[in-house]
Design a protein that fits this description.
The protein is an all-alpha fold. 68% of the residues lie in helices and 0% in strands. It has one domain.
Length: 71
């Protein structure tokens, strides 16, 4: 396997480091938005597991159909 070498200046390295830090901050921000902060009960957790299993089997309904069905 051939290897190659890239030379960067100190300024370029600092710039890359800053960009990576900004990406890390953005990832942490997005994670905070996506990770639920509300604790759920054991009963709710079990209900979610049942729903996930049903979905894996192909048993699901679209949001539009659900609204039509429930009014």
């Amino acid at each position: 396997m051939a290897t190659s070498t890239i030379t960067v200046t100190r300024t370029e390295l600092k710039s890359i480091h800053k960009e990576l830090e900004m990406m890390e901050i953005e990832i942490m921000r997005l994670k905070a938005l996506l990770v639920p902060t509300v604790k759920i009960s054991k009963k709710e957790r079990k209900e979610l597991e049942v729903i996930k299993k049903d979905m894996a089997k192909g048993n699901w309904i679209s949001g539009r159909d659900l609204i039509k069905k429930l009014g």
